[in-house]
Design goal:
Elements (H helix, E strand, L loop, with lengths): L14 H21 L9 E3 L2 E3 L8 H15 L2 H14 L1 H4 L7 H4 L1 H12 L7 H20 L1 E5 L2 E4 L7 E3 L2 H4 L1 H8 L4 E2 L5 E2 L1 H15 L19 E5 L4 E6 L11 H19 L6 H20 L38 H18 L4 H14 L42 H19 L17
Antiparallel strand pairs: 1-2, 3-4, 5-8, 6-7, 8-9
Length: 455
Amino acid sequence: MAIKINAQLTARALVPKARRLFELSSHKILDLEKSWDASRGTPVFTVKGRYATRGWTEWTQGFQFGSAVLQFDATGEKKFLALGRQRTLERMASHVSHLGVHDHGFNNVSTYGNLLRLMWEGRIPENPYEQAFYELALKVSGAVQAARWTDLGNDRGYIYSFNGPHSLFIDTMRSLRSLALAHQLGHALMGERDRPISLLDRLLAHARTTAEFAIYYGKRRDAYDVRGRTAHESIFNVNDGSYRCPNSQQGYSPFSTWTRGLAWAICGFAEQLEFLASLPRPDPGALKQFTEAAAATADFYIANSCADGVPMWDTGAPNLYRLGDYLNRPADPYNDWEPVDSSAAAIAGQGLLRFGNYLGRKGTRYRQAAFTIAQALFDEPYLSTATKHQGLLLHSVYHRPNGWDHISRGQKIPNGESSMWGDYHARELALMILREAEGRPYLTFFPKKIPALNP
């Protein structure tokens, strides 16, 4: 009862599916660009196949414009580079200085970061002033993100969520990339009396706190301590820095696992392992702790997803028992009882692939699980082939407890809809696979060495 991992799949075998994904992606990016009214805010998820917005926090704009940059990266079509550049210049500045969210790694690394990466790789012409513009945005973004800080004492702490200083979200593991890039660019957060605050130190402290409190290791922490289970939110007493309890905003309960949160953990820890290992003096204690967290969450995902690698939206959803032996079959997004979440699969697929690559020979199982997930997502019923549907990856779920997801006539649960983060991460996973198959540079948000500016 777990993912039926296809041990024979390779990146090369998935190339036709990945290329088809980007062929479909082209029309969908342009359709959204043509039809979207920017005065409405940011597109978040689809309703009846058309993108709609939902005021909560502005965390998906970077996925919209970052998708155009990924499209150029995959296909070389310059109109998508022009679109990504122009919209980043016009609309992303407010996200760089946004004090109210924990989402800088989503918005700003997906736009400014992807564009800077392409310049570092030589994919777009070297322009010292354009490079300086992207670097400045990323420096400020990382510092602003790091300033959203709850200090627990004894060199411990975390970037707090939009819920307030008591709240640590698992999502922020992937947002740490903003601190990583800013640190690598030589930046620091300046505090009171001109005290420089290391962005790397804050990255490490946040990740350690997350690994300790948001991830379970089967060590009897509570009655629901199963290795790899992940809490969406961790609550702390800000008066004395003590941990109080797990919680969940978008999952079913604090004592079940919201699978998109689980996916953020897998991807976030794997990506930070890659980054930390690239530093001149990586912290061996951090590498060990984060490897344990990545392995626990990856194993839990594999054991608790359906046979094709697509999970239900929450491992403790109340009507799962009605589905029988659902883990031993491919996921059924059209069932009558509980929705699946393809966006969790896309995020986890990338995390599993990165973690497998990080482990080398010991990571084959994770790599093959990632390819198995990609094989399912890059085809129907998950790949959106209808030209009138603006989404790319179908059967994504946003906020099941709040009832925000559209339920079509004749259906009993949300299905058939897409999200900005699901579409973006499907593209990013496909790009990783294409690059591997074609022998192109490995896709990371950070460079091995920062190219110098030459005005």
